[in-house]
Write a structure and sequence with these properties.
single chain, 897 residues, alpha/beta, Dna Ligase, domain 1, D-amino Acid Aminotransferase, Chain A, domain 1, Glucose Oxidase, domain 1, 5 domains, eight-stranded mixed β-sheet, eight-stranded parallel beta barrel, 36 helices, 48% helix, elongated, binds adenosine-5'-diphosphate, binds magnesium ion
């Protein structure tokens, strides 16, 4: 028979799945011999059974009876007893802590009779009635679903009538009257009197805790934190101890270290003569934990000993909830405490220094996400600010810039040297150029998975979305909030972490960790303003060094220009995994491509390309010089041709207008030819059309030009005594034959350049694996490729059949909402599907070519969870944006320990 209930003394901390976090840790404290009021845990199995069957399994009731009797025997009081009544707390506790999401009921077991026995037994009338009114209040709200406000109002009214400020000042008579009022409230709200049978109270409270798993806010919280819905919560039933028995009693919370700075010491709050949530609820001003020392030295010392034991045992920062009853300490909860990103790094290294954990373990205590947070620029704490509105912080960072409303102004102002914040009602893929030009993006609509948010996170740029108070008039170019109106060119500041929007420029500073990454440890230490900051810099430095030592994955970067490459190299990148050459054909050079496309004869085409050759060569010289000695993967031109041509509609209108006005001349002639070409190359579905290797095979001159430019750049740099290491990469390959054709052509060109320069040029020629067919036939393709690079962006698009540029708000939001996806597969690799293709690709490739070099380029290369996957499937490197390099180094190290 399934067992649903465990005494605290039967469990331990490894049983969080079954007992929930609170239950498992209570059990652990019992094992450690710490003073925990006796109790038991009803398992998450029982909760799941309740949720599927809609009722508590009868076995649970039977087991609860037996375990309740154990408690009664242990402490010699019984539930509902007329002399010494046992009181209980009924506490929720899921596997992952969901602060404030579910419910707890205290003082269960009190009724119109036992309240008198309690008063007599404790010799404290006031205490008894205070406990009873708390029970009715908590039970009413949590179990009976009565609006909590109603109770608070009654309490406030009572305090006002008595002329007192805090509830400890209410005397027994006043509390008695309050209880009467509460009971009436229960009866009018629910139609039945407050349940008087203690055991019935217990059963109802247990069921209510189960039910609270599915409250709206609990569901919402789980979605946000990616906690599975099917886990369920455990219920802990425990004998009450009382912090509200006067001045020698009290309740508090504490941390074994400061959770924001990480320092070891005495951190916590204590509230005398109080119960339960009083401390956090801010009802009265709490005392610092250190003050407890003067009030009750014995209890204080006992608590300090318990804190130290817990920290030694868990070997980590713990947070603790405790109660003191007439000078006796009781431990009510502990867990490994949440902490800020900075504290995570500091605590981890401090624990190493105290020789409580090893460096490997320390690596497990920090995450790439935390490091990422420490890299974002910050608003200067001391700066003055005027808040305009608050939206959702969707991608952290602090951005200050001129307001712009469209791509054109964003680009124009950026070129003029200004920082801009792109403001849109919502964004679409068309806004990408504006986003690229901007330092931040602000929208009035859309959530954390909206296009703006997803794209901004990918680019590591600051974003605030869904600021619904903003009235954005794109035509008039104004933002209005109440009385305030801002126009184009006005400066705003947005905080991508808090979602706050300020008028004017709030001062922004590089984070100390960013300074460390960009300028090195000495510079960062020198610039640090205080010891805490210096500690942080040191901690991050030590962790990254250790990660570098441990990791097997190399970390490269995606960079298209020498400038980007330099930045990434400074941050520890060990090569370039993806240089997108098409960026070099945009802007002013677009015309050259136009000429290539428009060429009427092979000769004309060749002339056009010959003009491009020196430009391309110069690009590669610049890049390879910066990356001297490090592998540099250059991808041959990838996107569809139309991206280099004018927009079809725009051009049609221009030509039509010119013709209507009877204009002529070379400009018009050119437009007409261009229009024909644009029509000609127009495709319904260009991303699945003539691009990548297909383009290379259709216009062989394009690839040839690039390969020659690479080869000549190598020759030039070697001439200067440098060591360029380019790798030529062919995009969008789906078959062995495609790769074969390109490779033959490339070899020929390399041989020519080798011959004329007298140098050996056997540059590696590999391909991207970004189509399912390539992954599935990797064993064949590997005959023609010196390396594979998984293009997981396109591979995700082509595996799911999602268009990355169009997934956008609507349907992705719906998919996240109804649980088809828990996160965008463009953000974290879909290990089950896309990941399986990566695995097959690696295996297939290496079956043909042992030790084939494999890597990944694409957003996933910088995503912590995906990096662990790439480590597991045995890739040689990941490549990510320069911004994510430190994060990838850390996570690759973590994957290896
Ligand atoms: P949460 O998960 O919201 O922290 P808890 O179950 O920890 O809820 O209960 C909240 C508070 O109620 C505890 O911090 C403690 O002060 C009080 N409490 C819970 N159980 C007991 C108990 N057995 N005796 C006295 N106080 C208790
Ligand atoms: Mg708690
Ligand atoms: Mg691609």
């Amino acid at each position: 028979m399934a067992r649903y209930v465990y005494k605290f003394s039967e469990g331990d901390r490894d049983q969080r799945d079954l007992l929930g976090g609170k239950g498992a840790n209570l059990a652990e404290m019992v094992k450690l011999g710490l003073p925990v009021p006796p109790g038991f845990t009803i398992t998450t199995d029982a909760c799941r059974a309740y949720l599927t069957e809609g009722k508590v399994p009868p076995e649970v009731r039977v087991e609860v009876t037996r375990r309740l009797r154990d408690i009664e025997d242990e402490i010699g009081r019984t539930l509902g007893d007329s002399e010494e009544p046992l009181l209980l707390s009924v506490r929720s506790g899921a596997k992952f802590s969901m602060p404030g999401m579910m419910e707890t009921v205290l003082n269960v077991g009190l009724n119109d009779d036992t309240v008198h026995s309690l008063a007599e037994f404790a010799d404290d009338e006031r205490f008894a009635w205070d406990s009873y009114r708390r029970l009715i209040q908590m039970f009413g709200k949590t179990v009976l679903d009565i609006d909590g406000e109603r109770f608070s109002e009654a309490l406030e009214a009572r305090k006002a009538a008595a002329g007192v400020r805090s509830d400890v000042e209410l005397d027994a008579e006043q509390l008695k009257a309050l209880v009467k009022e509460y009971k009436e409230l229960v009866e009018t709200e629910t139609g039945s009197p407050f349940p008087q049978t203690p055991r019935k109270q217990v059963d109802m409270a247990i069921e209510a805790v189960f039910r609270s798993w599915n409250t709206e806010r609990a569901v919402l919280y789980r979605r946000r934190e990616r906690i599975p819905d099917e886990l369920g919560t455990a219920v802990n039933v425990q004998a009450m101890v009382f912090g509200n028995l006067g001045e020698t009693s009290g309740t508090g919370v504490c941390f074994t270290r400061d959770p924001s700075s990480g320092h070891s010491g005495v951190y916590g709050d204590y509230l005398p003569n109080a119960q339960g949530e009083d401390v956090v609820a801010g009802i009265r001003n709490t005392l610092a934990l250190a003050d407890l020392k003067d009030r009750d030295r014995g209890a204080y010392r006992e608590l300090r000993t318990a804190m130290r034991r817990l920290e030694t045992h868990y070997r980590d920062l713990c947070d603790i909830e405790f109660t003191i009853e007439h000078g006796k300490l009781w431990m009510l909860q502990t867990r490994v405490g949440k902490r800020t990103a900075a504290a995570a790094f500091r605590v981890a290294t401090q624990l190493v220094d105290e020789q409580l954990i090893t460096m490997d373990e320390a690596l497990e205590r920090v995450s790439g996400e935390q490091l990422g947070q420490l890299l974002f620029p910050q608003f200067d704490k001391d700066a003055a600010r005027q808040r305009l509105a608050t939206g959702m912080g969707a991608s952290p960072g602090a951005a200050v810039g001129e307001v712009v409303f469209d791509n054109a102004s964003a680009q124009a102002r950026k070129e003029a040297g200004a920082d801009v914040v792109l403001v849109r009602r919502e964004t679409s893929p068309e806004d990408l150029p504006g986003m690229v030009a901007a330092v931040g993006v602000l929208t009035a609509r859309g959530g954390k998975t909206s296009h703006a948010a997803v794209v901004a996170r990918g680019m590591g740029m600051c974003a605030v979305v869904g600021a619904e108070d903003l009235q954005i008039d794109v035509a008039a170019k104004t933002i209005t909030v109440g009385e305030t109106t801002l126009g184009e060119g006005d400066t705003i500041s947005i905080d991508g972490k808090t979602g706050e929007i300020y008028v004017g420029a709030v001062d922004v500073i590089d984070s100390p960790v960013m300074t460390y990454i960009a300028e090195g440890v000495e510079a960062a230490r020198a610039k640090a303003e205080d010891d805490d900051t210096r500690d942080l810099v040191d901690a991050v430095h030590r962790m990254l060094e250790h990660a570098d030592e441990r990791r097997r994955l190399r970390v490269r970067t995606n960079a298209d220009t020498g400038e980007d490459a330099q930045r990434a190299r400074d941050r520890g990148a060990e090569g370039i995994g993806l240089c997108r050459t098409e960026h070099q054909f945009l802007g002013e050079r677009r015309e050259y491509i136009e000429r290539v496309i428009l060429a009427e004869s092979d000769e004309a085409r060749e002339t056009a390309m010959a003009e491009l050759l020196p430009l391309q060569r110069a690009d590669f010289v610049e890049l390879l010089e910066v990356m001297d000695g490090l592998p540099t993967t250059i991808r041959l031109i990838d996107p569809p041709l139309h991206e280099f041509l004018p927009d079809l509609t725009e051009l049609s209108v221009r030509v039509a207008l010119a013709q209507e006005r009877g204009e002529s001349g070379p400009e018009v002639e050119r437009d007409i030819t261009l229009l024909e070409a644009v029509r000609h190359t127009h495709e319904q579905n260009p991303m699945l059309g003539l691009r990548g290797v297909r383009l290379g095979l259709k216009y062989p001159g394009l690839f040839a030009l690039q390969i020659r430019a690479i080869a000549e750049a190598v020759v030039e740099l070697r001439g200067q005594g440098k060591d360029p290491q380019p790798e030529i990469m062919v995009p969008l390959v789906g078959s062995r034959r495609e790769m074969h054709l390109v490779r033959e052509q490339a070899k020929e060109i390399l041989a020519e350049v080798a011959e004329s320069s007298g140098q050996r040029l056997d540059l590696p020629i590999g391909c991207m694996i970004e189509l399912p067919r390539a992954a599935l036939t990797a064993d064949r393709i590997a005959h023609e490729a010196d390396f594979f690079s998984f293009g997981t962006n396109d591979l995700t698009q082509t595996t799911w059949g999602f268009s990355r540029d169009d997934v956008e708000t609507e349907f992705f939001a719906a998919y996240l909402e109804n649980g088809v996806l828990t996160i965008s597969p463009f953000e974290t690799l879909d290990a089950l599907g896309v990941g399986e293709l990566v695995r097959q690709g690696v295996e297939g490739g290496r079956a043909t070519a042992t030790g084939l070099k494999t890597g990944v380029c694409g957003e996933h290369g910088g995503d912590p969870e995906s990096i662990h996957f790439f480590h597991d499937v045995g890739l040689d490197y990941v490549s990510c944006s320069p911004f994510r390099v430190p994060v990838a180094r850390l996570e690759a190290g973590r994957a290896a320990v």
